[in-house]
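Structure (tokenized):
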């Protein structure tokens, strides 16, 4: 009897997963106090009848003049009086009735319960649901054998009584418990008495199982795309694969179709995407995006992956996307790879290409294609003779429309002797870097098969000391480290540069032996890398209160090997590097970094970030980032309640160097137990050329039902570190 009534609260949820806490409704009152009628078995099909007085007739049935209680399973139907017709097998209850189970409570003016068909009809019904606090009414409720529920002239809301801010009305709702689907006819959604959505017919799932259906619509506006509206349709094709189709209308661009396909088989998973905009209103072009991300576990340590995306033109993301992360992309990866892993070896075979989106890059500045690349890496600790044995090898063919083309073979065997004693450790190591080329289109006078062999000798040493800090259960560590590296000079001017760069100097680079990243250059050096780290830890939990690191490299010879166009360096020392991380308490955290030029005597880099985070709704961030001659930026963001129902959010990211706002947004949010409203104004850099765009996101949250509008919460989470949108 009415076991499926609680299902009608799941309207508009087609995807899988539980409903978020933010979409719960207002309290509808205490759970019903169930009468004590003895032990309850929810699966018991028997019908028990309890009454204070009854007149029985073996031919006609019975008349109950005192309160009657009919129990089946964990539900109880109660009425002040009633009668039972033996010939029809029906109970007729009048003059007010109540039905209660642990999930719901229903009242009505009249009810008929058919014991033969196990069907129940209640007229002039009102109901309260407790799984998702909500309530409603219906002119009639009919339950057919506990599987099909029909409601006529229905209203539904999660708002408190007397505050029906939003209502869902339907002339009829039919819920099939077996299929998990509901069908609503003449459904109308009202907010503050104003209809905002209407559909003559719609089906939707009423369980948390994945089922096909429409997902939440999104509405937004930007200068580039104009007013836009999209409504996804989810297709539950099979338990292990599904798809989503999304028509997207953009006022200034036209109608675009977006599609996503996900799949999962034993050992295989992936996702494919496609987007197509025919005849863009701005330029008349057909525009598209295609992408696939696939992984296969082939067994015995083997894995295959495909990661590829392509777009119709270089301005696709700038014109059709609204996030800085998307519009700042300069290349799209296209890669097919096969890998192998075990405890010692890792193998890689791949082909790799890029689509260049940044049209300012010349042909010789674009990345090379790897067609193919074969690589092997091995590491055996404490192997023969007590040594650590290592090997890196690679064979790659590089291709590009312009510039040098060819193949490169790289081999690098190495050995190391690890020694440690009571917190002290020492690790001398020797490796050989051999690289040989086959140039397919050598320039006049250029050797078509240059090579280079370079030894690398290093001694790495360090220690870890610790002491207790009296009185507060802290532990302090002191971790010095020193590494000497010797790499002799080898003339490499005739070697091509396919994929090698010299990365920025930082603490990650401090203890790298080769200052270049890539195999086309091995930097000559005699240097001593020095670092000191100290931590303050909780002795019981191991949590870090403070971490401080400082480091520098001292040079004993000139560094002559350079990339093309570079100059030899004759410095006695590198810049000083320092980092500091402090956790003041459970709410306050700070991170700082500093790079000071030993030769220039000037600050090269600096960054400072401070965060206060009480919870996902109370967050304040302040950051400063500086890099000489390229970056000078202040970034402040916050989300904070300004009353019991109102909250404010905002971000201001400003370039002091360019006197320009990189991104700013401000928003207000209203929340009560029934509904919420969020509006955000955003101004941001929308293209690589520095052009800006503005957007307004408006979102109406009807708790327990659906969201209407642009999904602004996700944008806020990306822009405010630590913020969690309801």
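Design, position by position:
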């Amino acid at each position: 009897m009415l076991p499926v009534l609680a299902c009608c609260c799941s309207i508009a949820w087609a995807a899988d997963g539980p409903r978020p806490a933010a979409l719960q409704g207002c309290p509808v009152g205490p759970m019903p106090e169930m009468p004590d009628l003895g032990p309850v078995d929810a699966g018991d099909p028997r019908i028990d009848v309890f009454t204070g007085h009854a007149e029985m007739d073996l031919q006609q049935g019975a008349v109950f003049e005192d309160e009657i209680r009919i129990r089946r399973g964990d539900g109880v139907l109660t009425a002040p009086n009633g009668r039972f017709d033996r010939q029809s097998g029906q109970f007729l209850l009048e003059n007010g009735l109540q039905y209660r189970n642990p999930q719901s409570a229903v009242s009505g003016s009249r009810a008929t319960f058919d014991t033969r068909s196990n069907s129940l009809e209640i007229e002039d019904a009102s109901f309260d649901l407790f799984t998702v606090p909500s309530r409603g009414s219906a002119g009639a409720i009919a339950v057919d054998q506990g599987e099909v529920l029909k409601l006529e002239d229905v209203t539904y809301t999660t708002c408190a009584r007397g505050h029906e801010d939003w209502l869902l009305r339907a002339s009829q709702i039919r819920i099939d418990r077996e299929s998990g689907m509901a069908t609503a006819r003449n459904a109308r959604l009202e907010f503050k008495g104003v209809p905002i959505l209407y559909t003559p017919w719609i089906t939707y799932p009423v369980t948390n199982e994945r089922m096909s259906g429409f997902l939440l619509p999104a509405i937004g506006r930007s200068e580039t795309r104009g007013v836009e509206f999209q409504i996804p349709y989810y297709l539950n094709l099979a338990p292990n694969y599904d798809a989503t189709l999304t028509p997207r209308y953009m006022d200034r661009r036209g109608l675009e179709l977006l599609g996503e396909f996900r799949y999962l088989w034993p050992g295989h998973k992936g996702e494919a995407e496609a987007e197509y905009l025919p005849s863009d209103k701005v330029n008349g072009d057909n525009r598209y995006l295609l992408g696939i991300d696939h992984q296969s576990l082939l067994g015995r340590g083997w894995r295959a992956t495909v990661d590829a995306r392509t777009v119709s033109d270089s301005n696709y993301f700038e014109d059709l996307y609204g996030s800085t992360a998307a519009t700042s992309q300069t290349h799209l990866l296209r890669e097919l790879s096969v890998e192998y892993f075990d405890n010692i070896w890792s193998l890689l075979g791949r082909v790799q290409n890029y689509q260049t989106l940044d049209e300012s890059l010349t042909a010789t500045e674009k990345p090379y294609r790897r067609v193919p690349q074969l690589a092997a890496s091995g590491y055996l600790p404490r192997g023969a003779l007590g040594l650590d044995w290592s090997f890196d090898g690679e064979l790659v063919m590089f291709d590009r429309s312009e510039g040098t083309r060819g193949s490169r073979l790289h081999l690098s065997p190495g050995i190391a002797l690890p020694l440690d004693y009571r917190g002290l450790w020492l690790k001398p190591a020797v490796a050989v870097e051999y690289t040989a080329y086959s140039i397919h289109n050598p320039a006049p006078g250029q050797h078509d098969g240059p090579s280079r062999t370079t030894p690398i000798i290093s001694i790495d040493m360090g220690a870890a000391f610790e002491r207790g800090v009296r009185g507060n259960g802290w532990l302090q560590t002191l971790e010095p480290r020193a590494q000497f590296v010797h790499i002799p000079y080898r003339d490499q001017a005739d070697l091509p540069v396919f994929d090698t760069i010299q990365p920025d100097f930082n603490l990650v680079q401090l203890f790298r032996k080769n200052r270049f990243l890539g195999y086309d250059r091995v930097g000559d050096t005699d240097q001593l890398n020095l670092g000191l780290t100290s931590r303050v830890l909780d002795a019981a939990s191991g949590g870090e209160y403070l971490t401080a690191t400082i480091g520098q490299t001292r040079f004993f010879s000139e560094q002559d090997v350079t990339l093309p166009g570079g100059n030899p360096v004759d410095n006695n020392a590198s810049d000083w590097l320092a980092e500091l991380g402090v956790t003041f308490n459970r709410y306050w955290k700070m991170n700082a970094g500093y790079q000071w030029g030993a030769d220039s005597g000037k600050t090269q880099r600096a960054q400072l970030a401070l965060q206060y985070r009480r919870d996902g709704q109370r967050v304040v961030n302040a950051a400063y980032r500086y890099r000489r001659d390229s970056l000078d930026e202040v970034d402040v963001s916050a989300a904070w309640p300004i009353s019991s129902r109102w909250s404010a959010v905002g971000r201001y990211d400003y370039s002091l160097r360019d006197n320009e706002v990189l991104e700013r947004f401000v928003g207000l949010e209203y929340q009560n137990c029934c509904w919420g409203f969020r509006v955000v104004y955003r101004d941001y850099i929308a293209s690589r050329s520095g052009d800006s765009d503005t957007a307004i996101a408006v979102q109406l949250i009807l708790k327990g039902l659906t969201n209407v509008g642009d999904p602004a919460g996700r944008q806020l989470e990306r822009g405010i570190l630590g913020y969690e949108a309801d």
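Reviewer-requested clarification: Helices lie at 316-320, 324-327, 712-719. Residues 1-23 have pLDDT under 50 and may be disordered.
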